[in-house]
Each structure stands twice: as C-alpha cells, then as structure tokens.
Amino acid sequence: MDKPTYLYLIVFCFFVFIGISCEEESDPSPNTEPDLNTIIASDPQFSLMKEAMDHANLGPTLNGSGPYTLFLPTNEAFEDYLVSEGVGSLLDVPRNTLSRRLLPHIIQNTVPGSQLADGYLPTIAVESSSLNSISLYISSLTGINGLANLEQTDIPASNGVIHTVDAVIPTPHLWTHLQSNPEFLGFFSACNQLGLPFEEAFTGQGPFTLFVPNNSAIDAFLSSNPAWNNDLSAVPLDELEAVLSFHVVPNQNVLENGFTNGLGLNTLHDSGNSIISLTENGGLFELNRPGGGSVPILGINIQGSNGVIHIIGEVLIP
Asked: What is the four-CA torsion angle of 49, 54, 56, 62, rounded to 10 degrees?
C-alpha cells in the first residue's frame, strides 16, 4: 500500500470513530423507571386504585409516553369513598360513574410537587357540551378543590409523576369552584344568601357561563350603598337576586375562544330578556357596563363539569 492511501485510511477511520462516539454520547440514557400502570399494580398501598382502574377500564388511559401527572388516592381514601357511596366494594360502583370520578385525577403534563402553586390545572376530564378540560383548583391552604390534601409527592414514573392524595376527588362543578377559591368568597356568600335555587342550579346539569366578580368587586358593590353598611345580609334579597342573575348565562358554556366583538349573551335576569355584551379592546375582551363603559375580564376558562367561570373586576348592575 502506498503512503497516500495509507494516510487516507487512517483519516477515514478517525472520522468514523469520532462520528460513532458523538452519536453514543448524544444518545440519552433510557428512562429506567417503571410506568404509571406498573407502579400502581406493584405497590400494595395502591391496591384499591388498581382495582378502580381495572373496573373503570382506565388502564389504557395511562399507557404510552404521556407525560401525565396522577393525583392518586390512597387505599384509605378509597375506603372513605366507599363509605360515602354506601357500597361495600368498588365493583358495586357503576363503571361509568367510577370512570367519570377518576378522570379528573389525571393531568396531561408532568407537574412536579415544587410547581403545585395556587391556581388551576386542566385535567383529561371534559365538560360534555364544549369538550373543554375540567379544571382542578390547587391551594396551599385548602388543598385540591378544597376537598383533598397532598400526602406523598413526586413518585417518578417513566411516563409521568404520581402525587398521592387523601381523598377521591369529586368531579368539580361550578359550586365546587365557587366554594373552593377564596377569591370567589364574596360571590359565593351572595349565592348562599339566596339559598337552594342557586346552589341547585350550580350543582345541576347546566351548562352555565358565569361572570364572577372577585372579592374586591363585591366589596365595592357593598360600599356603594351606605344603608348596607358593607354587610351582604343587609342587601334586599330581590335586589341581590336581580344582580346575581345578571352574571349568569344559562344553557351555554362560552369559552374565551368563543368571544367576539359585540357578542350578546342572554342572562337569567328578567326571565332571560337581559343581555350582556362583549367588546374587544386591543385584542382583549371586556364586558359592556349597562350604564356605559366597560368591565375588565381578569381570568378566563375555569371549567367545571356543568359550566365555565370567567372572573371580572366589577359587579354588573342591570
């Protein structure tokens, strides 16, 4: 072999070696953690979750790469659930009922415990008329939807993460969201003043679209009339009902992506004959105040099983 050919082979082999080495170094290490289904099946403390998943046929839901965040009720949580349902076994719970109850425990993303800050997470459960993801409210003070507390966090899986909780979380409806978020305390208290009609509506089938004034807005409303002395119970019930019903759009689950300039929405006020309308302002939407001007929309698309909530910064007076 002559000298140039020999040198060529040396250089060729060198670059082949470098290419193989780089490919091996850039190839990430495989995830050796078991997947979510395997963890549930192999850990005795999750035996009732395994039974529930099998009965509801939700095992396939957690197959694949995900990633998912699973709020997993402990065995003790399922035992409490069975007592509350008045049944002796998960097999006594209708399959569809159990499936609907478990789906809101699953988030379509990995959310580590360090990122479980106060706010909302979209679940893989959906509201039937819009197919929008039902929201879970996370609070450092009141837990998940005010009903379940985190126990163990950050159990790793190859396709997500598990956080255990001490309750089987009910699918949140509008009343759940109004009750669990402290920012809605004023509006929730006003609904409570009116008693069962509002509670039954917001726990019923729906759907409804609610424009919920935050606490600051409720405080400003109460201070607008000196005779009320900032006391919600001093507001005449007929006046309170008229005001609250003007914030409720029945028979629709109107999401932010359905807002259009000039959109009018019939409310419960005046037997459905009162309309609130929207205006676009710089790419953002506001509600038109009946007396002129506009009311800012501060938060959008808080989804319950029977409707959606948008947060506003002022009480609408019909």
From this structure: 80
